[in-house]
TrEMBL record, chain A:
Lipid bilayer topology: Multi-pass membrane protein
Transmembrane segments: 6-25, 70-89, 101-120, 132-154, 174-194, 226-245, 251-269, 281-306
Keywords linked to the UniProt accession: Membrane, NAD, Oxidoreductase, Transmembrane, Transmembrane helix
Subcellular location per the Swiss-Prot or TrEMBL entry: Cell membrane; Membrane
Record organism: Modicisalibacter luteus
Enzyme superclass (EC): oxidoreductase
GO molecular function: NADH dehydrogenase (quinone) (non-electrogenic) activity
Protein name: NADH-quinone oxidoreductase subunit H
Automatic annotation (TrEMBL), chain B:
Annotated membrane topology: Multi-pass membrane protein
PANTHER family to which the protein is assigned, alphabetical: NADH-UBIQUINONE OXIDOREDUCTASE CHAIN 3
Keywords of the record: Membrane, NAD, Quinone, Transmembrane, Transmembrane helix, Transport
Annotated source species: Modicisalibacter luteus
EC number: 7.1.1.-
Protein name: NADH-quinone oxidoreductase subunit
Known function: NDH-1 shuttles electrons from NADH, via FMN and iron-sulfur (Fe-S) centers, to quinones in the respiratory chain.
UniProt similarity note: Belongs to the complex I subunit 3 family.
TrEMBL record, chain C:
InterPro entries reported for this sequence: NADH_Q_OxRdtase_suD (IPR001135), NiFe-Hase_large (IPR029014)
Protein name: NADH-quinone oxidoreductase subunit D domain-containing protein
Pfam hit, one: Complex1_49kDa
Species annotation: Modicisalibacter luteus
Domain called NADH-quinone oxidoreductase subunit D: residue spans: 266-357
Amino acid sequence: MIESLASLLMVLVVLALGPYVVAVMDRLVATAPRGALASDVWLGPLSRAAWLLTQHANATEAPDWQAWRLAPALYLALAAVGLALVPWSPTLIATDLVTSVVLWGSVEALATVVIFLHGWSANAVLPLIGAYRYVALGLSYILISMFVLIGAALPAESLQLTQVVASQESLWNVVRQPLGLPLFLVVGLGLTFWGPLNLADSTDLAGGTAAEVSGPSRLVWECARAVMLVAFSGIAATAFLGGWLGPWLPGPVWVLLKTLFVLALLLWLGQWLPRVAPERCVTLMWIVLLPLSFVDLVWAGVLALWA
Amino acid sequence: MELLTLVIILALTLSAGLFIQAWPLRHQPQPSYSQRIPFLGGGTPDTHAWNRYHIRYYPMTLLLIAFEMEMMFMYPWAVVFVEKGMMAVMEMGMFLAILSVGIVYAWREGVFRWQ
Amino acid sequence: MAVSWLRQLAARSCVPVYPVWGEHDEALLATLVLSTQIELVDSPRHASVLLVVGEIPATLRDGLKHVHDQLPSPFAVVWFRGAPLIALNAPIHVDEADRLVDTLIRTHRELMLGQRDSASRLLPDEPPNPWEGLGDDGHGGEGMMGGTPYGRPMAMNMQDDLRDGLTLDSLTFRLGPFYPALPSGLCAEITLQGDVIQSWETRHGALPQRLAPVFYAARERPVPIAELELARARYHLVQLYRGLHLAGLERIARHALSLARQLSTASRLDGLRRQLVRSGIFHLAAMDGGQLDTEMAARLGGPAARAAGLDADLRMDDASYQRLGFRPQCRTDGTVRARWEQRLAEIDQSLQLARQAEPDGLHTANTEAVETPRGPWSAKPPQDASALLDQLLPGLEWDEAMTLIASLDSREVAETSGRANI
């Protein structure tokens, strides 16, 4: 009971702090080598959130009101489900299902639906293009994600994330299956339409699915995206970086450090890579990355039998 | 217990997400029609945006269905993989090989291009 | 007082500004982009201040009114060196460039703290069409067809698609004149099927641009080559900024702009070029298309023409440039990629020429014909070539189209340098 409450609290704390941490880290990563740090790097995200709360919510002529308001909230809820699946220690975990890998897969699939809904419900051209374009990406990365995660589940003989961590006692998956983490990072960029895979809210569409959104709705949308980034980093740290495993420090601290590491990596990629053209993106996913994920799976399978 | 926690988290975040959007809206009037025109850099649309949209990647979606069917087989397979040993490798290897041929064929047919 | 601290905090935020560019100096863009307290946004929905730079021609005022009304309240308008459209509510007007950033920040603060009312809407609060409420669901038409449900007709079209011949709905709308991915002033009527452009009709060309004063001076008297070439490199770097911003490489884009601002003969392009190559932009973005044929390339002139293999550059006719051993650089294929590579090469070349010319204080010899960074200026300045887009864009996917437009500098060059730089 105490453990459940503690883990619930943990999820809520990460949920509340996540967007702030992502905003600050993104700025730190952006200015890192030059050292020209903006003065408001710490207060900036908070004042921006305050501004979004005071700005009025926009409307279009005939939007689908329910769907338009529901989409950001649902995306946030999906991100929270992802966070709930992250084990902080063998016992400190909000939702320790025997099928948690499957549940995470469904979070990824539903995210595509929610992001599509966000763009579609405004009833405006630019968000609509962003929405349909995102679906092409969503349908492409989901398979890569599945193969890579199954690869991580093979040595554990289980679809339970705590078991997946336990199976990495001798060697972390990032070493054992070297293709796994890089491929999974691509999935993370797609899931949060971040940086090079920002096909949904891109600059050529004046903000894409968010082009018509202002005020509190935009705040929720951006927070949800940031929390999803954190949740994804948590899952990646669990599946590939050995979760709570590590010397000297207590488990939850290791999970936190590893999550922040993956997060920084994603933000760095987001700063340094250009947006991929949609057609090229789909081809790249199916022709290069998907076969690579097959290789990863076969590699993981052979190694699991051999061990 | 696990599912209860999950439902609590789901309900909390969903209602928080809706509340943050709804609460500041209490005193806001509906925006004027001139504000509500979809943003097109000062231009205007002729029609509503909802339409029978031409999805350019439709052949790719068919290919996806083939793989999604495979996933249903793959989850249980992953759990019994080590126990079944070489047989499981062969089974999945054959399955993947067949699907890979599908990808190559689709690529040759230009399925991943915007039609 | 719960609202009060929220507003206090909001007043301290970075100011989200939606810019509408009339006639302006490119230096202003760098000032705004590189300011840490200003954020230029791509959609008016994301802004609290609308910044109108320079005079907006009468033909584009309707577009400006639409954009103006699309900012969610509370919002304010700042007019920079141009007459406000309406004189209501004490419009905020600035003339000096160094006061602009402060004014933007102060305006945002005042808005947030409630010391200034939100600007009022310019257009009437009416639905685009009356909704007549006929039919079973009140959609206003007969059966499933026609009418204006919720003020607009539904998309309906029986035109075959350009690519696969499927007959689905197409969307017709007018884009611009102030769409961030298009040059300011460019207006087009576009028909889309899905995200592919079925037809593109340019309705209004891009606004004329004002080059750096040294280019106008070069047509009157010999000017130092070093100064002219640095101005040229600066121009190309600003173009590069626009292209990189569109590609989502905000960080490298800012680098290009800050390089432009501090440009001297000691500047090197190597760092920027390395960042670009490493980012993989030449392979990941849609850069294979947008090929210009010889006739189109000749019409555009300048770097676009040289990227398509035309060996034309007025600097070849200048005795001073000949002394420096100037040879124009060319690409052959005339694609989007070739145009960006051409621009990078020309920046490098300009820096090189500036370095060579500086020690002797070499001046230009020919004042009749000047090669501007946009194209040749002998009898008349480079003309607007936006109409080329009508041929180039149909059949392209949206992202491809916008990438192409960013690589293609089609604006006309203003005949005079306008008001003095402040």
